[in-house]
């Protein structure tokens, strides 16, 4: 048999097959180097290389302690509340009961109900109380006025119920025309020119 041409054909076919396989399969190491993701170690920096901002911790201010009322202030609140329970009661000269009050009678009953002694008349209450300035007044203090005639004599008294610390206040008192009521000072034209001063009978 003639085998020469067959050997040449088989050799050519083998070479072609090897060439095709080489062109199909690429170098895996090169493919990995191009496609594998790059892993970076975390270092507290952003993608641009700028350090990440450090969050600032906010410190909360401690709440201010609530001031406790003094014994005198607590007693004053009780006196004012008690006096207000008689709002609307009619005026009665010399009266110290729900049947009727005069100005000093309302003060006398409101304080004596809590064991605090005050004299019976407005002028005596003025003499028995501690003098205070208008900037010092607080609920439970007394405001003294002239009577019908403006002068130096005390003829009327009221219990202070509220104050703004700047010279304005509310007071409860027994008035001739309207009985027990609350007025705002210095509103109106009657009481401001008759103001004599202020007094305190309760403990600090």
The biggest beta sheet, please?
Answer: 6 strands, antiparallel
CATH architectural arrangement of the domain at 71-200: Alpha-Beta Complex
List low-pLDDT spans.
Answer: 8-26, 28-33
Average predicted local confidence, pLDDT: 82
Gap between N and C termini, in Å? 140 Å
Main CATH class of the domain at 71-200: Alpha Beta
CATH superfamily name of the domain at 71-200? endopeptidase domain like (from Nostoc punctiforme)
Percentage of residues assigned to helices: 25-40%
Could you say what the CATH topology of the domain at 71-200 is called?
endopeptidase fold (from Nostoc punctiforme)
Total DSSP helices: 5
Number of strands: 8
Query: Helix-strand pattern, N to C?
Result: HHHEEHHEEEEEE
Which sequence of strands runs across the widest sheet? 3-8-4-5-6-7
| Rg (C-alpha, Å) | 49 Å
Broad structural category: alpha+beta
Report on the structure:
- The chain has a domain at 71-200: endopeptidase fold (from Nostoc punctiforme).
- Helices cover 29% and strands 19% of the residues.
- It is built from five helices and eight strands, in the order H-H-H-E-E-H-H-E-E-E-E-E-E.
- The chain has a six-stranded antiparallel sheet with strand order 3-8-4-5-6-7.
- Strand 1 and strand 2 form a beta hairpin.
- Helix 3 packs across helix 4 (103-112).
- The longest helix has 21 residues, at 4-24.
- The protein starts with a helix and ends with a strand.
């Amino acid at each position: 048999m003639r085998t020469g041409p067959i050997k040449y054909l088989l050799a050519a076919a083998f070479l072609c097959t090897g060439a095709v396989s080489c062109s199909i399969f690429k170098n895996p190491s090169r493919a990995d180097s191009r496609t594998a993701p790059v892993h970076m170690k975390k270092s507290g920096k952003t993608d641009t290389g700028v350090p990440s901002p450090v969050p600032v911790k906010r410190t909360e201010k401690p709440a201010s302690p609530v001031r406790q009322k003094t014994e005198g202030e607590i007693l004053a609140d009780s006196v004012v509340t008690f006096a207000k329970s008689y709002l609307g009661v009619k005026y009665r000269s010399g009266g110290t009961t729900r049947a009727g009050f005069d100005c000093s009678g309302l003060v006398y009953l409101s304080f004596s109900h809590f064991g605090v002694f005050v004299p019976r008349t407005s002028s005596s209450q003025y003499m028995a109380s501690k003098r205070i300035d208008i900037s010092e007044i607080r609920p439970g203090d007394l405001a003294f006025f002239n009577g019908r005639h403006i002068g130096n004599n005390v003829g009327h008294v009221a219990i202070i119920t509220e104050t703004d610390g700047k010279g304005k206040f509310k007071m409860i008192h027994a008035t001739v025309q309207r009985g027990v009521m609350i007025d705002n000072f210095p509103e109106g034209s009657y009481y401001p020119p008759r103001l004599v001063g202020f007094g305190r009978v309760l403990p600090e």
